[in-house]
Write a structure and sequence with these properties.
Bound molecules: pyridoxal-5'-phosphate
Helix content: 25-40%
Structural class: alpha/beta
Number of helices: 14
Order of helices and strands: HHHEHEHEHEHEHEEHHHEHEHEEEH
CATH topology of the largest domain: Aspartate Aminotransferase, domain 2
CATH architecture of the largest domain: 3-Layer(aba) Sandwich
CATH class of the largest domain: Alpha Beta
Oligomer: single chain
Shape: globular
Amino acid sequence: MSTQEHANKSGFETRAIHAGYEPDPMTGAVIPPIYATSTYKQDGVGGMRGGYEYSRSGNPTRTALEGVLAALEQGERAFAFASGLAAEDTLLRSVCRPGDHVVIPDDAYGGTYRLFDKVAKVWGLDHSPAAVSDVDAVRAAIQPGRTKVVWVETPTNPLLNIGDIEALASVAHDAGALLVVDNTFASPYLQQPITLGADVVVHSTTKYCGGHSDVVGGALVVRDLDIAEKVAFHQNSMGAVPGPFDAFLTHRGLKTLGVRMDRHCDNAEKIVEFLSGHAKVSQVIYPGLAEHPGHAVASKQMKRYGGIVSFRVTGGEQLALDVCGKAEVFTLGESLGGVESLIEHPGRMTHASVAGTDLEVPADLVRLSVGIETVDDLLGDLDRALG
Ligand SMILES: *Cc1c(COP(=O)(O)O)cnc(C)c1O
C-alpha cells in the first residue's frame, strides 16, 4: 500500500498528515512543493504529465490540499477556492438556476446572507430564512419543486444554534433538494456532515482549517460524482481558485487540525466554567452546556463542542464594550479559528449590518474565539477585563 492508500483507511490525524500526497518521486520531498507555475510543458501536443495543463484548471499544490480535504470530510472529492465566499458562489451557480429557491439559516454568516440577498437574488435565485434548530420551520420554508438547496450552518454565529444534520438531510431529500452544510465553525475534526447525510460541505478554510490567521481560502467537499462533475466544471469556468502559496499554507494548517481543535475545546471548556460562575456574566452560550437548547443534538453529531464561546454581561452594552476594550491576551478583532484568542462585540462589529432586522444580536453579547494559549493567561485576562 502507498502512504496515501494507507492514510485513507486510517484515523483522522493520520489522514490529515498523509492523505492527498505521496512524497515526491524525484526528490522524496515529504511536503508538497509550492508549484509556482501557470503552465506545464507538454510531451507532444496534448501529452500532459499527470493531467496538468494550466494552473487555473489544476496545480499540484492545490491537488494535495483538495486530497486531504476530501479525506477529512469523507467526501468523494474536494475543491479549493480563493475564499469561503468564492466557494459558495461557485456552488450556487453549479447547482441552482434562475427561478430556483434556497432555504437559508435565519442567522446565516453575514457574508453568506449578503451573497444570497444582494448578489444571487438579482440573478433570480430566491431565498427564505428559517431557524436551523427548528426542523419543522425548515420543512415549512421549502417550496416543493422550486427549492433546490437547504443551506445549514451548525453551530451558527454568534448564538451557536445547532441544526440536526441527519434530520435536515431527510427533510431536504424528501423535497428533492440538496443539503449543504457550512462546517466552518465545527471543522472536519469535530463534525463530518457527509457521514450524516449532507450532500455538500462548505468551508471558509480561513478559519480553523488554515488555523493561523495567515491565509484566506474556501473549500467545497461533495458526496457524489454527479455534483463533483458540476463543481469541477464551474471551478475551472469561474476561476476563483487559490494560488499555490495559499494552498500550501492551508494544507500545512490542516496537518495539525486535530491537536489544535482539542486544545481549542479544552480552553473553551475551562473558560465556560469560569464565566458561568462570574457575577458580571448573565448567560454563557456554549453547546457543551446541558442547558443549551442544542446540547443533545450537538452531543449526537459533534465530537466536542468547539472553540467559540459567547456570553452576555449584566452591565449592558457598555460593559460588553469595556470588556472587549480591556482584554489584552484576547485580541480585539473579527474572524475566528486561529491559534490566537480573539474577542469581539458582535452587535457593533461582525453583526452591525443586521442591526434593526430579525438577525439583530443582543447588545450585551461578547463573542470569544478561544485560542490555544496557556489557559490561565486567558482566564486571568477575562477576569481583569470583567473587573
Ligand atoms: C468566514 C466565514 C465564511 C466566509 O468565508 P471567507 O473565507 O471569509 O470568504 C463563510 N461561513 C462562515 C461560517 C464563516 O465564518
